Amino acid sequence: MTETGAPQVVADGSAAAAAGSDVRCRFAPSPTGYLHVGNARTALFSWLLARRNGGTFVLRVEDTDRARSTDEAIEILIHSLRWLGIDWDEGPEVGGPFGPYRQTEGLDHFREVTDRFLEAGTAYRCYCTPEELEDRRRAALKRGETPGYDGRCRTLGDKERAAFEAEGRSFAVRFAMPGNDIAVHDLIRGETTFPAADLKDFVIMRSNGVPTYLLAAAVDDVRMKMTHVIRGEDLMPSTPRQLEIMKALGAPPPAYAHLPLIVGPNRQPLSKRFGAVAVEHFRETGFLPEALVNYLALLGWSFDEKTTFLDRAQLIGAFDVSHVSRNPAVFDLQKLEWMNGHYIRESDDERLAGLAGEFLSAAGIDADPQLVLRAMPIVKERIHTLAELPGMLRFLFEDVTPDEKAAAMLAGDHVATLRAALSALEPLPDWTADAIHQALGGLKESLGLSSKQAFQPVRAAVTGTLVSPPLYESMELLGRERSLSRIRAAVDAAG
RNA sequence: GCCCCCAUCGUCUAGCGGCCGAGGAUUUCGCCCUUUCAAGGCGGCGACACGGGUUCGAAUCCCGUUGGGGGCACCA
User: Fold this and answer.
1) What is the rounded average pLDDT of the residues A345-358?
2) Angle of helix A471-478 versus helix A451-463 axis, rounded to 10
3) Among A178, A228, A269, A369, which is most exposed with the fewest C-beta within 10 angstroms?
């Protein structure tokens, strides 16, 4: 295992000489929870590469860790991907010629491959128990050595094997690494060589007959004829091992591209502590899928030196995996919010009003959909997420109790202003924003008040707050009776 | 401990030897617009981690240092 041959370039992207509609990419998540934004970006880039080439995009569920994988997680995964608008040509719910697309549904195949490797001598049975391995691992670490399997079961004789079997020991199957350095070619990073000494024999088949990720992903990538594998940087060290598996399979490897990780503001991996990591969470907190997609696309990739907004079609037309950045990107929630605000303003009112319902009722507001729709033009340009809608629209559907600042204003000496407003507003023949504007504008003149002095008390009375959508339009939406009675109530309260 | 990756404004990035006294976006600050808040317009602050090379010339190439990150499982 220590002899070091000349580095061999095993994956030079030859299988990926495939172009155009021959391109096959996949997203292969483990269903262990929600769809993390980092994985969402991986899915997006892979999808973009497939769509860019008119190729095929595959969704494959890697659930070989049976303890952590759940059906519910698969549903969330599918839901989140669909919400983002990332569709797949082969995979769960759509089928395809290379099924099953859920690894635990095709375990026999992995077992057959393992048996073949065993026969060919590229794999062997290892009788070491997890406990023994853990002890040795810790001891190696303590001695300052590189932990990793020492290969002791590789040379077991028939007698020793029989002895272990007689002992009742179960075995796992390990892949026998060739003992030479292995070079990996990456579309984003170029060539990297992994020293033979660090490429220890690894388990491909657990004692319970379920393959490990290292085997399952490699075998399926070959079986499903993948031409490009885009995945997270954390998987880079597994590439030389999977390259060897593919070599043993006699299959040309796909081209690899390892994406830099997405980290939190503290440069640590994005965690729940940061707040927002699940795609589902972004949906629930009022983000639009096109905003998240646009933002994610720009995390590690850029079109040129000035383009910021790219819709789906533009992304597909422009995406180039070789221009992806190599350094980890900090997830900037503020920028996402800004971008979301942009997409909200771009959206048509009908769609937004439809989306608003969920947020309004979550806030306990029983809203009239028609009124929400009519209000949309004046509110959509002042929010960054849909979650801000209830706060902005509440006064239209519920009686207001002035907040602290509004109450303070109403308690001040503004009764005269409110009275004047009342008498200017009451005789209005048409209750329109324009008419209200005229009336209040005239009052401002006659009383010699500044705009602020004239309008803020009215705003406080009508909306219960000092910050609201534009006053005239708000009053038009609220309607004559409710607007006037709120002003009257304020006058009465002030004595 | 060992292996691998990475390093441009606070953040996302453009830059692939001279066009860079470093461009865009976001954040922040100021001004304009303005009925509040937004949106929009204009402007300001703000970066090539450090040290050696190579070269006529380096943010761009090489080496080292430092600093981040990833990996070293019968997890993926």
Assistant:
1) 97
2) 30
3) A369
